[in-house]
From TrEMBL:
Protein name in UniProt: VOC domain-containing protein
Lineage of origin: Bacteria, Bacillati, Actinomycetota, Actinomycetes, Micrococcales
Residue ranges constituting the VOC domain according to the UniProt record: 4-115
A UniProt-annotated Pfam family: Glyoxalase
Top-rank taxon, per record: Bacteria
Gene3D superfamilies hit by this protein: 2,3-Dihydroxybiphenyl 1,2-Dioxygenase, domain 1
Species of provenance: Frondihabitans peucedani
InterPro entries per the UniProt record, alphabetical: Anthracycline_SecMetBiosynth, Glyas_Bleomycin-R_OHBP_Dase, Glyas_Fos-R_dOase_dom, VOC_core
Length: 118
């Protein structure tokens, strides 16, 4: 029935602020930008920023977007901190990999993920 993921939609309350975060902090390429809808390329997965009137900054729960770091999670943690990202805890170790949780400017849950070492 389903054939891949076309776009992940993320609700935002402030489009300019959200685009700046995904472009400048996460270094994603902006493909289109408008007041109600903007798209960014996350390595072949399109992230759509959906500027809805009833969107509110989230404080808990919901979907999580996991990003693959360019370098080690430790190096990327320092980069995220230097760019003002809202880090939500420590790097955690699991049998299935390592994660570092953080939030975008709109309160959406994001994380860096690296698979376990072979």
């Amino acid at each position: 029935m389903a054939h891949g993921v076309a776009t992940v939609w993320v609700p935002v309350t402030d489009m300019k602020r959200a685009v700046a975060f995904y472009r400048d902090t996460l270094q994603l390429e902006v493909k289109s930008e408008d007041t109600d809808w903007s798209e960014l390329d996350a390595g072949g997965l399109m992230i759509g920023l959906n500027g809805r009137e009833d969107a509110a900054v989230s404080s808990s729960g919901g979907a999580v977007i996991s990003f693959q770091p360019d370098g080690s999670i430790e190096d990327e943690l320092e980069t995220l901190k230097s760019r003002g990202a809202d880090i939500q805890g420590e790097i955690s170790e699991h049998p299935w990999g390592r994660i570092l949780p953080f939030k975008d400017t709109e309160g959406n849950d994001l994380q860096l993920y690296s698979p376990p070492k072979a």
